[in-house]
Structure formats: C-alpha cells, structure tokens
Description:
Layout: E1 6-8, H1 12-16, E2 24-29, E3 34-40, E4 46-48, H2 56-78, H3 86-101, H4 104-128, H5 132-138, H6 148-154, E5 167-173, E6 181-182, E7 187-189, E8 210-214, E9 219-224, E10 229-230, E11 236-239, H7 242-255, E12 259-262, H8 269-279, E13 288-293, E14 305-310, E15 323-324, H9 326-336, H10 350-366, H11 372-375, H12 377-385
Parallel strand pairs: 5-11
Antiparallel strand pairs: 1-4, 2-3, 2-12, 5-9, 6-12, 7-8, 8-9, 10-15, 13-14
Amino acid sequence: MPSLKNHHFVPQFYLRNFSRDRKSIDLYNINSNRIIEGASIRDQCSKDYFYGKDNTLENYFGNIESKFANIIKTIINNKTFKILNTIDKINICSYIVIQNSRTIYSINQTNDMADKLLKTILKTKLKYEKDYKGLKHLDKVKIHPVNSIFLSIENSIDKYWTIYDLKMALLYNNTNNAFITSDHPVALYNKFYENIKDIGVTGLQSSGLIIVLPLNSNYVLFMYDRKSYSVGHNELINISNKEDVDNINKLQIARAYQNLYFNSSNVNKERVYECYHKYKKYRKAELTKITEHGREDFSKGGKTLVVSQPANYNVQLDLKFLKMLRKAVKKRTRRFYQTEISMYEFLRNPKLASLYEKYRKTKKDTDLDIEFHEYMHEILKNYSNS
Length: 386
C-alpha cells in the first residue's frame, strides 16, 4: 500500500467546518491579495511528506484529530463542557498545543528563534575574540535547525498540561458577520499584558493567557486564565455585536501565514477583504524576540542569560464579554512598579510547572512508564472540580 504523501498541517476535518460542500473552501490569499472561491480542501495547508516519509507523525496526529473532532461535535451539540471527563479535556489541550506548533508559521518562528539566538551568542564570542571579519559576515547567513518541524513539535507534544487549568467557554455568533479561520488557526493572546514588549507573555504557562480557536463560522472555542478574567457564569456566550466578531477575526488576520479561510454562504467575500485590510496593520514581521539579562564583562569571567521567545503582538483586543478581575489588575499594577520584572513573575502556575519537572526527572531516573496525566491524576481532578 503506498504511503500517504500529502501531509496537512491544518487538518482537513477542521477546514471542512468552514466549507459549503465539505470538499472546497473559500479563501483570501494574502500574497496575491485576492479571493479564491471553491479551492480544494485537499490542497490546502499541506506539503508532501511534511512530517517524513514513514508517516509515524501523520498517523499520530490523525488519532488526536479524530478524538478532538468528536469532542467538539459533542460540545457544540450539547452547548456545555460539563459532559467532558478528564481525558476529554486532555485531548482538547493536546490538540491545541500540537496544532499551534505544526504550521508553517510556527516552523518559521522556530527557525527565526534559532537564528537570532545563535547569532546573539556568536556575536558575543566574536567580539570577545576580536574577530571583526566574522562579525561582518554573520548577518549574511541564516542559521536554521535541521528538521525544524520536528523541533517545533517536540517542544509541545507533551505540553497539554500547560493549558489544562484554563477555563473553557463556547462563543456563539448571533450576528450576520461570520467567524473566519486561517492556516495558523490557534491564536494565543494576552490582553492582560498586551502592552509588555520585553518579556514573552503568550507562552503556554503565561499568566493572563487567552487561547482562541474558531470551530466553524458560528462557534469559537475560547480558553482563558480564570485568575485574570471573567466571562460571566455561562459556558455558552452569545455574541450579539459585530465588533466582538471582528475582534476574534482580527486574531486570525494577525497570525495567518498565507491564507484566511471562510464560508462565503455565511459571510460576504468583500467583507473578508475589507476586514483584512482594516486589520493588516497588526501583522508583525518580527516573529521572535531576544533579550539578554545580567550582561557583564566577559573578559573578567562575567555571564549573561540570553532568552529567546515569541514576539508579543498587540491587536488592541476589545471583547465586550471579557472582564479583567480587579484583584488581578492590582497585582499587575504592583509588578509594574518593580525596578526589575522577572520572567517568572508571569507564570500562571509555577507549582504545576515544577511538578512537571519532577515528573520528568522521576521518569528519567526510574524509567517510569506512565503518562503525565496518570502521574498527576489527582491534581488534574482537582483542577476539573475547581
């Protein structure tokens, strides 16, 4: 039997949710600045042997996609998350963190991060060695990891626990302005710290994190830090104003790689074109940011910490249903008055992160043959009930 050649980095089942006939999809191509109607879903968001020729990863993703598709169908049909068990929530989180890491956009981000990080380290070394010729030519080359797709996925493949504590809500579009999606559909944002520039605030463990994933033209999965925000008491949130829909779509526009996808039976194609040109100013060329902490004189044995992180982006998100908690705002204000802000100040749950590190060490030292969710079953149950 011939191996599966066409690997999708955004699943076909997902794109079909934005299709009129489950075979084709309407799109706006950013590079050519044009609308294409009825494009084949089979040819979207895919590359030949993107995950290698043995199809191991492709089959692994297929299993995760199948579970997620069934769970989301159940949520939409029942309009609640209360029917989900611990494993269902783990499957949702697994799908989201992996989907976020497997697109062309995320791979470009991984390459950019490696390039900037290594060049920062090399520049320091070359300056110390007074190798000015090397310094002159360093910016003329690109430094990329071998098989960066695997590096990007490896860094997220078991990180579902980082977002398990986020609260889930289902947004229902009650307007005639439909939700759209893109070739990088998982949007990570931090309304709480959207003005911060020097410290990464959209990491999976970041305090104030929001995750937005359009499910179809009418529904969006909305995950948020319950210690920073409130969306009211209902899991199903009716969106009744077009501004909220535009703000959700704005996140897709800001992070799309090449294509925006939509169902033209639910939204006017000219409306998508106008929306893109209204919000394209939020698209940033910078993918990652490098910061240096504690720089000292290397000739005297000094050291510095070089940190690479995804570049923050500020789309001025304004959602009428989303409220910042007063207690969290006071805590944030105190942080801003500190002379130095540690990146660890922005962790949403340092205890959970330390427990994961303990698990990794235990597994390494004892060949522990259990998954993290089994190791932390009681902890995860506590999160489910809180």
